[in-house]
Write a structure and sequence with these properties.
Distance between the termini: 31 Å
Number of strands: 5
Number of helices: 7
Shape: globular
C-alpha cells in the first residue's frame, strides 16, 4: 500500500471514512499489520481534546499510515504535528509535506523517523506548508547543512527554526 493507493481510495469512496477504512483494513489484514480503524481511533482520541495539536509519539507509524493521516479530513485545523520515533522514512515525509489537509501546520516534529537527504531534498522543493515555523529532524542523521537549506527555501517563508543535529 502506498500514498497513491490511499489517495485513490479517498476519491473513489468520496471521503466516506467507513468505506475507506474497510478497504484498507482488508488489505492490511492480508499483511497482518495494524488495522487502519485502530489507527483512526488513535487519531480521533487525540484530536478530540485539541484539534490543533496531534501527538503520536513512538507508535510505529508506517509510511502508509502517514499517507492516511495526510488525507484525514478532521486535521484541517492542525497546527502542531508530533510524530517522533516512528517509521515514516522519506515516503511518509512526502505524504505529510504534500498533504492537501495539513496546510496549516506551524510545527512539525519528525525526530527519529529514518528520514534521509532524499526526503529533505524533496521537501525543500514542495510549496505546501507555507505556515511552517518550526521543524525538527534530529536523530535522522542529516547534518547541519540541511538547516540552512530548508531555511533558504523560497517555499517556507515563515520557517524560523530547523533542527537536524
Amino acid at each position: 500500500m502506498n500514498q497513491d493507493y490511499v489517495l485513490e481510495l479517498f476519491f473513489a469512496m468520496k471521503g466516506d471514512l467507513n468505506k475507506i477504512n474497510a478497504a484498507i483494513d482488508e488489505k492490511l489484514r492480508k499483511n497482518q499489520t495494524r488495522k487502519i480503524t485502530t489507527f483512526e481511533t488513535f487519531i480521533k482520541s487525540r484530536i478530540s481534546a485539541n484539534p490543533k495539536v496531534l501527538r503520536m509519539v513512538n507508535m510505529e507509524i508506517t509510511p502508509d499510515e502517514a499517507a492516511y493521516l495526510s488525507m484525514y479530513p478532521d486535521l484541517e485545523a492542525l497546527e502542531v504535528l508530533d510524530l517522533r520515533q516512528n517509521h515514516l522514512g522519506d515516503e511518509g515525509l512526502e505524504a505529510i509535506v504534500r498533504s492537501p489537509v495539513l496546510k496549516n501546520l506551524c510545527e512539525l516534529d519528525l525526530r527519529s523517523n529514518g528520514i534521509t537527504r532524499l526526503g529533505l531534498t524533496m521537501m525543500a522543493g514542495v510549496q505546501n506548508l507555507v505556515h511552517l515555523k518550526k521543524v525538527d529532524f534530529r536523530s535522522n542523521q542529516l547534518g547541519k547543512r540541511w538547516e540552512t537549506k530548508l531555511k533558504e527555501s523560497e517555499f517556507y517563508p515563515e520557517l524560523q527554526e530547523v533542527k537536524t543535529v
